[in-house]
Design a protein that fits this description.
This protein is an all-alpha fold. 63% of the residues lie in helices and 0% in strands. It is elongated.
Length: 167
């Protein structure tokens, strides 16, 4: 592994800002090296993982118990996967990538949409399914939500990178 460091910069003191540090932006080659060492996990991989774990859970519950419990678990899975897919779509929009401020606002707006849609889907399940099992639906919901942690645990390890002049 090529480990490189950023050359130490001297402090430049001026009358108006005595605590600021002078810095040099990374070159294109240095930035590419840092990006390659720290890959980004796509939110779509998390959504796909949630869908797969949810499908396995619904299948297991249907096989071990009965169809009513499997449908209740499926509602719990749906209450996580559908809002998560909408959230991933919103975060990957051009508006969210415009600048840092719009990215932060977009994150909070889509998170609010995700929470409202989750609650809405749970209430819809209650209205549409007369014999809904709330504990089974909540098991589906919690297990599917925990896929976020599984995605973080299985994510490729981030390498510590110190960048200096590569030339």
């Amino acid at each position: 592994m090529n480990q490189v460091t950023i050359a130490a910069l001297t402090m430049q003191h001026s009358d108006d800002s005595s605590d600021e540090v002078d810095f040099r932006p990374l070159t294109a080659e240095q930035a590419a090296y840092v990006r390659a060492a720290n890959p980004v996990t796509s939110p779509w991989w998390v959504v796909l993982g949630q869908l797969l774990v949810g499908a396995v859970l619904v299948g297991l519950v249907g096989w071990l118990f009965d169809e009513r419990l499997a449908k209740s678990v499926a509602w719990g899975v749906l209450a996580v996967v559908l809002p998560a897919a909408l959230f991933a779509y919103g975060l990957s929009s051009r508006f969210a990538a415009a600048n840092a401020a719009t990215a932060v606002v977009s994150f909070f707006v889509w998170e609010l949409v995700k929470m409202c849609l989750t609650v809405g889907l749970m209430l819809t399940a209650h209205r549409l399914m007369r014999d809904l099992s709330w504990p089974a639906m909540l098991v589906g919901l919690v297990v599917t939500i925990k896929v976020y942690w599984l995605a973080l645990a299985l994510r490729r390890k981030v390498r510590t990178v110190q960048v200096t002049n590569l030339s």
